[in-house]
Amino acid sequence: MKYFADIHVHPTMKSYGHSFPSKENSKSPLTNSSIWYYDPPNFLEKLIDLLGGIVKYRQSSFSAMGFGNTGIVFASLYPIERSFFDNKLKTGDFNDMLLNFITSVGKKRIDFIQSITDYFSDLENEYNYLKQLDGKKVTLADRANYQYILAKNATDLDIILNQDTTEDKKINSIAVFVTFEGGHAFGTGISPKTNPANPELVLANVDRVKNWEHRPVFITLAHHFYNELCGHAQSLTGIVKKATDQSYGMNEGFTPLGLMVLEKLLDNSNNKRILIDIKHMSRKSRLEYFNLLETKYKDEEIPVIVSHGAVIGNEKDKHFFLKDDINFYDDEIIKIAETSGLFGIQLDERRIVAAGDNELKKTHGLERRKVLFHSSVLIWRQIQHIAELLDSKGLFAWGIQSLGSDFDGMINPLNGFWTAENYPTLSDYLLMQAHNYIKEFPNNLTQPHNRIDPEEIVNRVMGDNTYQFVQKFYR
């Protein structure tokens, strides 16, 4: 069976939030504290999304991913930063209700975060929540039997994807790899100005994570607020940007503690290296990291990863893309390819397209097929830019692009591609774009080895590049 892969989703974000205070992952897909809770968008929720960019439905429940033939999932754990809920709106029932409307993580979860004093225990609790239904069979709406299995290595991946599916015991299995977003999860960033983190405790927490039963493939080192490890890029928009202040530490480089954490994560003793996802890092931090890879780690094969990103573009195509440096420059994309890394293209319209773009306006129409076509154009532009850039440098053009949707990470999805259940449709429309590209622009790629079939291009983006990455770097 054809399967898809997503290297950055948050299937636990809303379900774990609604499990408070018990933190129990309900086996019933009818319960909103279950990671399987099936909650596709209705008409009103689509309207709220289109008009306000607020997602009231579940995008990355395992039900949606199962129905969308997603076989490989990188589940990003995320201890939500306190600054999200301890902000200019202050506290109080009305403001908590407003914050819950925006985030849909549950009022009890918001109360917990507002009083949190240690992100690391929250990370471990979310990991334990994910483990509770590991390998447990769930029947979804009488449609089929499903399970997700947490993978410990590439060998596990093959076993999970090739489960016995004879008719009398048919079960659809999803292979799940653990990642997490934000180095603050190691126990930093609570009160960096007044009460800095204890380095010994932070480094001990790194060791604990490296010894988890399911070692993370990578971690997204930075996130929205200063974490005492490295500078972050500006990332927030809309009402959230107005309510919060992420300026402290923004655009800075690595700290001494950050360099110690980085060294410990990249230490490959006992084959326990955890890779670094450079999304959310400031440009300065990213360049400092590349310099380390070229000097201190020059004799080691360490891939550069962007788990959920978009391109900034060049002079020729710059009017297509958002120019904020939360997105990635051409030199960074080349570095990813040179290190056999991955670039997960996110499905957030605020990131992948310049505001006011004519193609974006066409995605807000009413005729479904036209909406899907124009939404897929926006994604294809990312794939195409990366391909033509790498081709111009003599590199393989199609080896790093993958899907990193950031579903349920409080994104504003492209119209028509609302949830993981829409991946088969996305694949079909990307295939249409690939056929059109090869037919209309046969000479855009100069390297003969980059002129491959449209089917292979789309298969790579939708799953094969991720599979090959796991086989190479998560043995």
Question: How many helical stretches?
Answer: 17
Q: Please give the alpha-carbon distance between the first and last residues.
A: 24 Å
Note the run of SSEs as H and E. EHHHEHHHEEHEHEHHEHEHEHHHEHH
- Main beta sheet strand tally, sense and closure: 7 strands, mixed
Broad shape: globular
CATH topology: TIM Barrel
Q: SS-based structural class?
A: alpha/beta
**Corresponding CATH superfamily:** Metal-dependent hydrolases
Q: Mean pLDDT score, rounded?
A: 93
Low-confidence stretches: none
Write down how many β-strands occur, each being a DSSP E stretch of 2 or more residues.
10
* Fraction of residues in β-strands: 5-15%
Number of domains: 1
Helical fraction equals 25-40%
CATH class: Alpha Beta
Radius of gyration computed on alpha carbons:
21 Å
Assigned CATH architecture: Alpha-Beta Barrel
